[in-house]
Specification:
four-stranded mixed sheet; 14 strands; eight-stranded mixed sheet
Length: 359
Amino acid sequence: MNITIVGGGNIGTLMAGDFAAAGHSVTMLVSDPARWSNTLQVLGEGDVLLKEGPLACVTDSAAQAMRSSEIVFVTHPTFMLGETAQRLLPFATEGQLIGIVPGACGEFFFGGALDRGAALFGLQRVHDIARIKERGASVYSLGRKPEIQVGALPSARSQEIAALMADLFAMPAVALPNYLIETLTPSNPILHTTRIRSMFRDWKDGKTYPRNILFYEEWDVPSAELLIACDDELQNLCRAVEGATGLDLSLVRPLKEHYESANAPALAAKISSIPAFKGLTSPMKEVEAGQWIPDFQSRYFRADFAYGLKAIRDIAALAGLPTPFMDDVYQWYISNTGQADIALSGMPSTLGELARLYR
């Protein structure tokens, strides 16, 4: 198949390497094509070569990248999706599939794909834990998931697209009943934001930390408690939206179920012991030797707070449902960054509009 990958970060590079090694014609749309090799290597732990494959094209031209592409995977962070959609959608064609990885909030920016005869889909979570070794040349595959979950607009295409993704990724794929499940999944918008809020609970301007904190390996009980509290609010929201719209949100799984942990201590122990997360640091920057502060320009902040968590709270407002724990996390972000509350232009204004969007 002719496949375009938009974005040369961790997951985009891994997807390109996997697909190229499987014999697909892969085009990369990146900002620095001259830096890229003609071949991508996918490595396992210990730098073992798992596979490699040739790239058909590496370009910074949206028109060239979209031309003749059957499937387009957009791997940019959420805060870039508006600009990315403006670049890509003029070149979208009838019958093309445009996928957002991960899918949360993709519908608010790429809904215009449907007007051009394309279909929109998203992966509920990434299919693997990826880490670049050398940009444009090699990437690690560190934790392949047991399955992927696929939601689509229109929702009637979910089964068909999930079957295609199962073949493409060579792994089981579950068709989600609707795309809203992608946006309400308690992955990065809940997982990252609650950890950051708890980890930096005593931060104020002028305070520094002696090192970069391990994001997952040092996950503590207070972080797990806040995570569970926000996830409980999310589950209440799902039940309220289901009752008001009839949309099936049963596959928005509670995090205690996802991580097989009955309480906060068990959840903290589970998250801190996941091998694929070993060594991952926090969104921090060193301002002087041995003096670290939160990096508010990180995608953890600019995507997960400003868009992911924001979208969940906006949907809760449509349902008239209070979310005091999520509100605290979000307001901490606003007060410490000075960022304005971003309006999501594609967000429905009523539950009736919400139901129609995700049918």
